[in-house]
Amino acid sequence: MMESYFVRTLGMHRVYNSAFMNILRDEDNAKYRLIIKNTLEYDPEILKRFVNFMNNPDERTAIDQFGDGDKYFGICTLMATMPGLPMFGHGQIEGFSEKYGMEYKKAYWDETPRSDLIYRHERQIFPLLHRRAEFAGIELFRLFDFYTDAGTVNENVYAYTNGLGNQHNLVVYHNKFANTSGTIRTSAVFNPKDGSGTMQQTDLASALELSPHPNTYVILRDQSSNLEYLRNSQEIAKNGLFVDLHAYQCHTFVDIRQVQDDEYASYKRLYEYLGGRGVPNIQQALAELLLQPVLNPFQQIANRGYFQYLLGARCGGEDKQQLVAPLLEEADSKYAAFLDGIQSLTNLSFDRNSLQKRLTVSLDVLLSWLVIDRTHYPLPGGKTYQAALTTLKDGLDETPERWLILFAFLFVRDIGRAVGEINHAEQSLSLFQEWRLSNILKDCYQEFGSTQEHSSEMVNIIQLLIREQDWLAKRGKTSLDQCMNEWLSMEEIQRFLGVNRHKGILWYDKESFEEFVWWMTANAVLAAVAKPDFNANTFVELILSLDADVQTLMEAKENSKYQVALLLESLND
Predict the structure, then answer these.
(1) Cα 460 from chain centre
(2) Does residue 252 lie within any of the structural domains?
(3) Which of 81, 345, 395, 509 is packed most tightly, with the most Cβ within 10 A?
(4) pLDDT over 90 percentage in the chain
């Protein structure tokens, strides 16, 4: 406890601040907060001379004194964000337990660095050290009292602000094994060192330079949890910032920025909706809130329960026809609610009946896929027709996840028609991405057991199907090699086919090519059956026409030896 004597009386430029280590370890928080307050009243510059540490060669190791949990990282955060010089002991970040004396030439214990501790330092502490310029000074450093609901100061909570230029930060840490909640509003007294000799205090809004305007909100990003919080600036100016803290919980609010509400009170609605909760990204949360009219009904469609119900309703038994009518009615009802949301969001009028009819017809065909020639288009056909139909059926029968992709596809492929029929496929894809429908689908597929990476691949296929839903209509105006050439010019299709360059030659993946051809065939069928004048004769003609294209593509694949240039050359020939 001789630090102040060394600095004030002897005039030392730097001094080991053992009080930091000892008092915080023992949780005598009122005592250490008093040291900071006294220093701020005498001369705040002294805080810059302290070397704060959690262990050194003369002391027990940090992991021995502070453990390896939230308490350690909370105090380590204080060390990284308080004025002065933070000093890490040897082996502290790695979690070593051996005490290293000054006389040691080597380690005597065979210890392995703990990857979990190193990773948490990298995520929680190192980014703060990169911002030391925002924490090292004392010009903007203000210590705050934490008032509980009972009106008393909780001395176990360390709350202070600091910054550099227009950048302001707020650190809050609860150094006690207990829960607490309270408000940060008024700072401790400090000596401004402006020659006036008058002690000053400030409030939190002034320290963070927040506007008291009622339509202004502040976004605080917590480096500790990587969550963002939204608060009303006027509320902070009037009543301070309310914080709920668990045992040894720490918040390091950085990148604090203000936003002005718009005429639709978007931030106010988000503020009330979150109710104090943190989210990964405020702007994304705001977008999702505004998209609730669309997202909520779509979640009623794209969820494990409903997709599982559709999987169970696939044609495979004699009782299937009894399920069709109520199933399609329910699908129509869910789709109608989705269209209601689209209409509410876009404020546009469109032919809802036509879209609902397209969905129910296509969904009925999809659910009857494996027996479609018996239930919907019962016309006899030759061997070529039957072989083509079998290939089309087997693609779904062998890969259950394809059903999940097609279920979602049918509900989203026509959303662009709400905007207009011109370029409706591109419009559908644009709205699918803009409305973040992919996030709901990824969550749904992960509920079925897909990995995050694989669920993203499934969504990519849906986007590909949306974009190319009219490819067969375009095919009537162009040759197959021109069609394939256009496909291969698209980056997303190149990725799907695994196109890569090796030794100056562009190659593609055989299995991916065969899968792509099947997807385009199924896509064409689902687009055709949704037309009002579609019938059994048209179905047979469609299957035979598609089979001719498929056979041509498969022959070109064999001739190409999986080279892109040879594939196009073979199709051209």
Answers:
(1) 17
(2) yes
(3) 81
(4) 73
Note the pLDDT tens digit of each residue in 103-116: 888 888 999 999 99
- The reply to whether 154 and 253 lie within a common domain is yes
Q: Are residues 110 and 166 in the same domain?
A: no
Give the type of residue at 395.
G
Cα(192)–Cα(429) distance, rounded to whole angstroms?
Answer: 59
Place of tokens 């308490």: 71
Q: What is the pLDDT of residue 2?
A: 66
Q: How far is CA 117 from CA 71, 96, 114, 506, in A?
A: 13, 10, 6, 45
3-class SS letters over 406-453: HHHHHHHCCHHHHCCCCCHHHHHHHHHHHCCHHHHHHHHHHHCCCCHH
**CATH code assigned at 177:** 2.60.40.1180
Of 475, 564, 455, 464, the residue nearest 519 (C-alpha): 464
Pairing of strands 15-17, 50-53: parallel
- 204 part of a folded domain: yes
Q: Is the residue at 199 inside a domain?
A: yes
On whether both 37 and 155 belong to a single domain, the answer is: no
Do 116 and 153 share a structural domain?
A: no
CATH number of the CATH domain containing 59:
3.20.20.80
Angle between helices 452-467 and 400-412 (to 10 degrees): 50
Clarify whether residues 71 and 149 are in a common domain.
no
pLDDT digits (tens, 9 = 90+) for 383-439: 888 888 888 888 887 678 999 999 999 999 999 998 888 899 999 999 999 999 999
Locate tokens 């009802």: which residue? 333
Domain finish residue from 281, 311, 328: 281
The number of folded domains in the chain is: 2
Measured in degrees and rounded to the nearest 5, phi and psi for residue 361 equal -65, -45
CB-CB contact of 358 with 530 (8 Å): yes
Give the model's pLDDT for residue 9: 66
64, amino acid identity: D
Residue 366 covered by a domain: no
Is 560 within 8 Å of 570 (Cβ atoms)?
Answer: yes
**Which domain range does residue 30 map to?**
3-131
Checking if the pLDDT of 100 tops 90, the result is no
Distance CA 292, CA 359 (A): 22
Tokens at 126, concatenated: 């190192």
pTM: 0.69
Rounded-to-integer distance, Cα 313 and Cα 321, Å = 10
Residues 201 and 229 occupy one common structural domain:
yes
Residue recorded with tokens 């809004």:
205
Which amino acid type is present at position 228? E
Sign of the torsion formed by the C-alpha atoms of 453, 454, 459 and 464: positive
What's the rounded Cα separation, in Å, for the pair 396 and 3? Answer: 76
Question: How many degrees, rounded to 5, is the angle at CA 356 between CA 352 and CA 362?
Answer: 150
Where a domain ends, among 231, 258, 281? 281
Alpha carbons 140 and 143: distance in angstroms, whole number:
10
Backbone phi, psi, residue 52, to 5°: -85, 135
Burial 16-35 (b: 16+ CB within 10 A, else e): bbbbbbebbbeebbeebbeb
Same domain for 67 and 91: yes
Q: Are 83 and 135 in contact (CB under 8 A)?
A: yes
Give the tokens for residue 355. Answer: 């879209």
d(CA 253, CA 239): 19
Q: What is the mean pLDDT of the chain?
A: 91
